[in-house]
Amino acid sequence: MEREILYEISYFIMNNPGKLIRFLNNEGYRVPMNATTQQLNDIVADGLFNRKFTEDLIKFVADNAEYLNVAYTAIATAAAAVGQVIGELIISAKMAVFGKQQTYKAEVYSKELSEWQKDQAEIAAKKQMSLELSRMQSDIILDRDIQEEKQKSKRNMMMFGMFAVGAIVLTFIAKQLKDNN
């Protein structure tokens, strides 16, 4: 029934703009006589959130529309039905806002999570790079120590070789001196 009433109000707005403008101006609105249908729709839609306005409008439409056969006893029912539709629209609008807020919160959470994950990946990459540098530095130190050990071994071998050669030369010289004496 509420859809039928809204249909009748819509039809009345389209076909009786002058009468509606006079009604709205009597209700305290300042509506120019050349108002568009969309402007009238906006004003009526705003007014439908007010129960008194809704009852007055339905009564006015019933009084001024020959085709509309609404009994005055049904006006309260019609107003309640329109109120129910308006209530449903309000609930739908609130749910839409809530849904948008939830979506926004989810987007913010997703963005924060993404940033956190990026930060964690960056931290992990830095740790991995630090470990890699440490490993390479350990390899460099190990290589340097190996080179030093090789150098020490060469020096020791040279020293041993020089000792050995010196000992052989001294032995030879001593033998030569002994043989000559």
Would you spell out the secondary-structure blueprint of this structure?
Blueprint: H1 2-15, H2 17-26, H3 37-47, H4 51-64, H5 73-180
What would your notes on this structure say?
- The chain is mostly helical.
- The protein has a domain at about 1-90.
- It is about 85% helix and about 0% strand.
- It has 5 helices and no strands.
- The protein has helices at about 1-15, 15-25, 35-45, 50-65, 75-180.
- The chain is rod-shaped, with a radius of gyration of 50 Å.
Percentage of residues assigned to helices: over 70%
Largest sheet: none
Structural class: mainly alpha
Shape: rod-shaped
**How many whole angstroms does the radius of gyration measure?**
50 Å
Uncertain regions: pLDDT < 50 for 5+ in a row? 69-73
Distance between the termini: 148 Å
**Count of beta strands:** 0
Q: Approximately how much beta-strand content do the residues carry?
A: under 5%
Question: Which tags fit this structure?
Answer:
181 residues; 5 helices; 87% helix
Give a brief outline of the structure.
87% of the residues lie in helices and 0% in strands. With 181 residues, the chain is an all-alpha fold.
